Amino acid sequence: MELSKKNIIDILKSSDTSIFQEADAVRKKFVGDGVHLRGLIEFSNICRCECLYCGLQSSNKDVKRYRLSKSEILDITQKGVDEGFKTIVLQSGEDIFFDTKLMCDIIEGIKQLNVALTLSIGEKSFEEYKAYKDAGADRYLLRIETTDENLYKQMHPYGSLANRKRCLKDLKRLGYETGTGCLVGLPNQSLESLANDILFFEELNADMIGIGPFIPHPNTPLKNDQAGNLALALKVMALTRIILKDINIPATTAMETLSPNGRMLALQSGANVVMPNLTDDFHKKMYEIYPNKLSGSRKDLEKLINSINRYIVVDNCGSRN
Ligand code: SAM
């Protein structure tokens, strides 16, 4: 469907919810009823960045920091493989302890377990992204967070939107299946800026899009700001499905954290991926990007997916290519 920026803004403004059914129909037509599972491993909460919204920002001294060793990461991956996961997502703060050599070593170890591998470890140079790709990484997730230049600068005092965009272009050029996405409900974020985010996803020709409502963390400068609105986040996601059609879209944990049926609503409004957390409970608690981050069991997830007449797909692709 051809949608102009004005159309998108009008839909975001409107109280009409038919967009959710439309997105569900587009999802069914282009990617089917299968729900792809990605096993998430949060292997370090150490971060050099200062993203204002994030509980892991380096100036938050109340976080107990951890990093997992290569063998711990491989053990969790093996456990995931034993449970039937065929895709692993390695996520961390921007922890420079994991230099290119160590990352490539970990990537090679994981690839020996015969799974698809997604990385979500932040902004790197072209050479680093290339080394990870050569070591076997298949996909990369890097949310643009917001395409609004002013808002980006406010939220990332030491970062630059231009570099974030450069990273995404490099990832595409290197042949990664590239995922991006945005936060919905950041302070001072306008509907126009959300419309621009959606148009940016289209321009990038992204393969995956993760939309997360903003949730304030008590140890950040945004602690007194309002959380994002779930319905608005779902609308941004639904519009993304309608415009980009055959991409992968996760029902994000932040949606489920905001509302007990957030994940189900997302799966019925365009989403076709879920990312259960494989990290052990001890470390999972410390990866607190926002409070009360949820992670249901695989059994509960299966029940939920079956209850809406969908099924879990156990392959390692679900890719656009
Ligand atoms: N360091 C990597 C990066 O920058 O892409 C990956 C880790 S980062 C913690 C993963 C995602 O968490 C970010 O892309 C951001 O959108 C999300 N996030 C951080 N703080 C959040 C908050 N308060 N509410 C909702 N999502 C948040």
Summary tags:
6-stranded parallel sheet, 9 strands, globular, 13% strand, alpha/beta, 3-stranded parallel sheet, binds S-adenosylmethionine, 321 residues
Descriptive account of the structure:
The chain is an alpha/beta fold and 321 residues long. It has a single domain (5-313), classed as Alpha-Beta Barrel (TIM Barrel), CATH 3.20.20.70. The protein is built from 13 helices and 9 strands. The protein has helices spanning 5-13, 18-31, 70-82, 100-111, 126-135, 149-155, 161-173, 191-204, 230-244, 253-258, 262-267, 281-284, 298-307, and strands spanning 34-37, 39-44, 87-92, 116-120, 139-141, 177-184, 208-213, 273-274, 311-313. The strands form 2 sheets. A 6-stranded parallel sheet has the order 2-3-4-5-6-7. A 3-stranded parallel sheet has the order 8-1-9. Helix 4 (100-111) links the parallel strand 3 (87-92) and strand 4. Helix 2 packs across helix 9 (230-244). The chain is globular. The model has no long low-confidence stretch (mean pLDDT 95). S-adenosylmethionine binds at residues 53-54, 56, 91, 93-94, 120-122, 142-143, 145, 183, 212, 214-215, 217, 254, 289-290. Residues 53-54, 56, 91, 93-94, 120-122, 142-143, 145, 183, 212, 214-215, 217, 254, 289-290 line the site of S-adenosylmethionine (SAM).
